[in-house]
């Protein structure tokens, strides 16, 4: 097709990987999403999920979703602005506001839509958005849609952020946006340090807690709470697609801001609300995350056990200290080959290449859930050791 020809000529990677028999994407799961899943009729250990709480197959959440479907139907057929607001959407907003400790919450249909629709809307032509170079793609799409001036700072580098803040005209609005836990490499932002700089330069702070909630802080409230600065972070974003075992996302902030966003944020207004099932599932997950702290404790036990294991093996794991463990390979084809070989050996991991990471930072992303047992983690580590050795990556 003429339309795509130039792009197809330039981007040959998927075709090459397919020809080499190592294409690693769209592997269909045909079972419940436990730590063990079925792919191509075979059971494999799942170390590629973002559901850190492991609640995705919890019977109580499934029941809540089924009950809501019975009561309200399968979809919402409209924007929250018009016919798409249910009482359970309002209930979820109120519960999340209380949980995160903010005046108000808005629920979007995806976390991607939250970042897109918030980052693009809050600042004007004369204002500034300061962003970490490793922020999530949805934040970057939001920036691209904004008319503001954009200043990128080096990854988790407060000196670099301060230099950028110094470039801003003092009387203009400045929005600093960062992930709390970086999604591919599992390292954590110094939100406390960012908040201090924001105070010094009169900036607003927005933190994406997609991978922080369910993992950090009391009741899984996230990194901002764990670092004791939630009250000073102006906007806290979260998603229901990871620890909440559902789909959708939220922004928690002051009423003044939500009132503006409810009338101007296009990815909120011009799309349908989350389904009754997704909404009820998130509500139930929120309850369980607070009532069952032992899940979070076990997640950290498994995380520390795996971190120690990978370090002892000699794997290069960067600066992670979270259930997201990057195993650096630094070569696309080896990364794809390892992904295939591990799947054949019964272990599912995610290959991460550019643009999700810088081209030289290609990695295997290993992630943990609160439902993994120590035996499963041990088995995963042993199999990874075998394959990484075969590729000459570890002694
Ligand atoms: N922010 C971050 C840091 C993410 O990792 C993701 C999902 N990969 C999103 C936002 C988007 O969330 P959702 O899946 O709810 O669209």
UniProtKB/TrEMBL annotation:
Assigned keywords, A-Z: Aminotransferase, Transferase
Annotated protein name in UniProt: Pyridoxal phosphate-dependent aminotransferase family protein
